[in-house]
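Subject: Interface between my chains keeps coming out wrong

I've been trying for a while to get a sensible model of this assembly. When I model each chain on its own everything looks fine, but I need the whole thing in one frame so I can look at the contacts. Pasting all components below, labels as-is. Any help appreciated, I'm running out of ideas.
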Amino acid sequence: MGNSSAPHVLVIGAGSTGSATAHDLALRGLRVTVVERGEIASGTTGRNHCLLHSGGRYCVNDKEGATECIEENLILRRIMPHALEMNDGLFVALDEEDYAFKEKFLAGCEECHIPAREISVADALKLEPFLNPNIKAAVQVPDGVFEPWRFCTSFLATAKRNGATIHNFTEVTDLVFQGSAVAGVKVFKHRTGKTETIGADLIVNATGAWAGTVAAMAKVDVPVVPTAGVMVTLGKRFNNMVINRMHKPHDGDIVVPVRNTSIIGTTSWRVTKPDAIEIPQDQIDKMMQAGELLMPVLKEGRQRGVMAVARPLIASANVDARDFSRTFEAFNHRKQGGAAGVITILGGKTTTARGMAEKVSDEVCAELGVTAVCKTRETPLASYRMFYN
Amino acid sequence: MALNVTLKIFRYRPNQPARCDTFDVTVPDAANVLDAIEQAWDKHDRDLMFRHACHHASCGTCAVRINGREKLPCIAPVRDYLDGGKPITIEPLRNFPIVGDLVVDVTGLFQRQEATGFVITRPTEDSLDGKRVDHTQCLAPASAAIVPFNRFENCVECGICLSACPTMAADDKFFGPAGLAAIQREVDKTDDPNARARLLDLADDEQGVWRCHSAWECTEACPQNVNPAEAIMDLRKQITARRFKKLFAR
Ligand SMILES: Cc1cc2nc3c(=O)[nH]c(=O)nc-3n(C[C@H](O)[C@H](O)[C@H](O)COP(=O)(O)OP(=O)(O)OC[C@H]3O[C@@H](n4cnc5c(N)ncnc54)[C@H](O)[C@@H]3O)c2cc1C
Ligand code: SF4
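Reply #2:
Try treating it as a single job with all components included. I did that and got this:
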């Protein structure tokens, strides 16, 4: 495939956003090259909480985000069932205030079309023997868990099958201009130590928390605010389902089980640079305390690792970082009076990566005068292992 | 609290002589070796090549040798290696082509895993820490049916067992412990006699289960308790039983 007369799009970054975008564009028949400075998913995507959101977490305060989540959740179950643990999630009320939130929560689920069923406390404890036995109510929703590296390699393997070329350990060091428009990138190939130029008809900046650095090369500004979050992984798995606290999203109110670990998360603080984030001990303590309220057993679990990464949140004026929307946006810099030839896709979640890819690919096609439509909703992905074919 | 450690990291690029570089880094008390490697990259040398993604032993990408032993550095605490200030040696896995520094080419491993048809999810069959659970209670909104809880397989396809395997070192055509363990899992999961026969055929090969010398290094090194050595023994038994059955069916 890889139609040689089709326009060439270069995607920078192979996290969930860039990987899904490469797949969408390749499926539409464009020529696609992906460059990633390190291993696939070595940015924010790899180290995230692995929650395939049902939308339950947002159904009261951010209905648009919640609706996006459940739509994408159901699509991903169809197109990449083998990279997911699909065990649902349980929202539990710990105190009277949470209990009072329940009606709002159930109404929110209904409004956002999130399947939800209330189960008795006794049944909840039977399903999750390590839950705090004093919970007041429990609601089951279709949360899930993804494996982030396989999430990305599934998209990339399919993109490759459709002709895309993927270069990992290839870092963009500068952009190449033709007149006032961006016409390619300069890359440093860590494998060979060589610097090369790759030409492109259009560039998609999918570098997440690093988007500001790449945008600066195009002499444009993107309003990205790297906002870190910490997670603690335990030496044992204590839950089948994702355990969430039934209230407005907070620090340490969610325990995600993956393989043979449970991951407690997460907090939120601003960082100046997204690499090798230093983790303040008080962030960990705060979060563990909150997690132990949900599942007292976590106190006994051996901490196996602590990790932190930065969310690529979009800043809005006069809003505190914690309350920045978790939505996504595609910035066509030409339309904003900046350089032509670069579109930045920013924000969102791994759960909504396919939807983000659809949005930015629509923008790419409009810019290039290509009429192909998005087909990723109904196209099952190749095995992630085919990334190595 | 912070730990000061010295890392001695293997460096290599194609067509250049290999060497070791030393990096002094400071990491938090609770840090794992992967955090120390990342610090070396962040603070000292942005050209250091290493693989990492999930940092919680699920993706399998970060496998290296620490002081000569195969490990997932994401779950190897730095404090376990504080040996009177001696440097911690980090080298790439053995028995794989080296791409650069700590990065090896895992193509062969993934192609063999793919050939087995190994599905990395399976229905949950064990209880949580000895407490029985009803594992047939999922909502499954897509199909409206109640389905069992599922779980990723233990194997994270990290390649550690291939690096530790003496047979693999002698012959890279050997199918390898991970692949054979994957075949055994699939044999276990399937009810289809044709699928079972195909899987056993794949294992019943000179470069399959019969090539293994039973050194048990794979089982020793596996960070996920997969026990490939026992899986290989089990496949041998099943293949032998099948041969007998064929013999007497004539
Ligand atoms: C603590 C935390 C928990 C989260 N939990 C969840 C969750 O449970 N579920 C969920 O759905 N979402 C979650 N998210 C959100 C989600 O992780 C992010 O929205 C998503 O991973 C962003 O993906 P991305 O591809 O845009 O960015 P990234 O994954 O960061 O990808 C950007 C890539 O660009 C590369 N890059 C940077 N600069 C260059 C360059 N110059 N040249 C080449 N490549 C470059 C980087 O190496 C990186 O791999 C969480 C986020 C945080 C911070
Ligand atoms: S069997 Fe164990 S050592 Fe081998 S690839 Fe799987 S997890 Fe790694």
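Reply #3:
Confirming on my end. Chain B touches chain A through 62 residues (CB under 8 Å).
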